Amino acid sequence: MSFAAGVIAVALIASYYLTYTQDDLEKVYSDKYFSYSYKEARSTVLSKASLLEKKMELSVHSLPLERKGREGEELATDIIWLGSRNPKKVLFHSSGVHGVEGYAGSAVQSQILDFFLDHPDHLNEDVAVVIIHAVNPFGMSWWRRWNENNVDLNRNLLTPEEWKTREQNVEYEKLTASFNHHDPYSLTLDFFWCAVKAIGTLGFSGARQALVGGQYSHPAGLFYGGKEVQPSLINVVSFLKEHFASAESYIAIDVHTGLGPSGHDSVFVDDIDSVWAKKQGDHIVPHLYKVAGGFPEGLQLLFTDKDFVLDPTKVTDTEAERVARTANTKIFQKTTQEFGTLHGILVANALYEENFCHQKGQFDRLSPLDLISHPTKKKLLSAFYRYQDVSWKISILARGKFLFDTNLEILQSGSGL
């Protein structure tokens, strides 16, 4: 072999191993943060919080749910409070409002904690970071988008007036005969036939709004908003109100999956022309459909105070006092960071089939191992968590950290709110 040929051979071999090593490193890095179960995800963030507690001001507050997970584990929403005990500025970062979607947000939160392990003095004295891990621990553990009562927690934080006047979703009623009554022997075909009819009747955008906009009439149906605020939300909202009501500026980032191109994040904001929105990068988009009772929207009402209380019977103040409360100068910015997975039709199909099996009790007698092996559950998980796709996970970590860093810098500097 000539010298030149030898050099080329060595270069090719080196190139192969360098490529392999890069792929391998990405897998190792993503596996460090992503989990396959709620129990593992919770253990990861709590372990990092325990280490971090030795380096900076930090406290962990576990808000238990009176249900067990699929491995018999305790279910809880864990609030990890970093920084000031009396903050003027607060950054909320929440995961798992939609249960099974929580694995992406949990991984980002784990990465955030690692950042503070390396930079424990990073926060200004008047700033707090509040990590809200697994708002819907039941759904995260049992691989459901909804909670233990089949309620969509992102349609559940209504104002007292909204609870009184919530209107029937007329367009959803047109679809319910199809989407909530199934042929158990051909679920997939059944779904796609229903989808074709819905799109033919309402158009794609109309059918999407009718289905995902939320409904309050069918407890066993999809996107059910409930009849009262759910226990896990009461736990979270009560804690946040108690400890952070005196702050002046807030930013909330709520992480979701299941909408948009795989691995690409859409950063949903109320006003894409605002100074704050323009600092969020080039992924900002306006909301695609209207919903009531959203989690970040509820937090905004909680702290900017437009008569928002969990129990309408406790509203006892006068009109003058109400006006004084609602005329405050608090600043609250919020965004939903939504990471894409599969095409929306496939995501809806996974929800449709899983809800049918759940309502019919087909999962009730399965062991934890059999449950996660059930094809319908695996289909649902894949619709919201691309657990075998390393590039998807790396994208979630990179973009999740970018959005967190961007908003922490805005809070710390006081510029751009």
Give descriptors for this structure.
417 residues, alpha/beta, 15 helices, 49% helix, 16% strand
Indicate the topology.
Blueprint: H1 3-33, H2 38-52, E1 58-68, E2 74-83, E3 89-94, H3 102-118, E4 127-133, H4 137-142, H5 160-165, H6 170-179, H7 187-212, H8 231-244, E5 249-262, E6 265-269, H9 275-278, E7 284-286, H10 295-304, H11 319-326, E8 331-340, H12 344-359, H13 368-373, H14 375-384, H15 390-413
Parallel strand pairs: 3-4, 3-5, 5-8, 6-7
Antiparallel strand pairs: 1-2, 2-4, 6-8
Helix pairs in contact: 1-15, 2-3, 3-15, 6-7, 7-12, 12-14
Report on this model:
- With 417 residues, this protein is an alpha/beta fold.
- Helix content is 49%, strand content 16%.
- The chain has helices at residues 3-33, 38-52, 102-118, 137-142, 160-165, 170-179, 187-212, 231-244, 275-278, 295-304, 319-326, 344-359, 368-373, 375-384, 390-413; strands at 58-68, 74-83, 89-94, 127-133, 249-262, 265-269, 284-286, 331-340.
- An eight-stranded mixed beta sheet has the order 1-2-4-3-5-8-6-7, with helices on both faces.
- A hairpin with a 5-residue loop joins strand 1 and strand 2 (74-83).
- Helix 6 (170-179) packs antiparallel against helix 7 (187-212) and helix 7 crosses helix 12 (344-359).
- The longest helix has 31 residues, at 3-33.
- Residues 312-318 have low confidence and may be disordered.
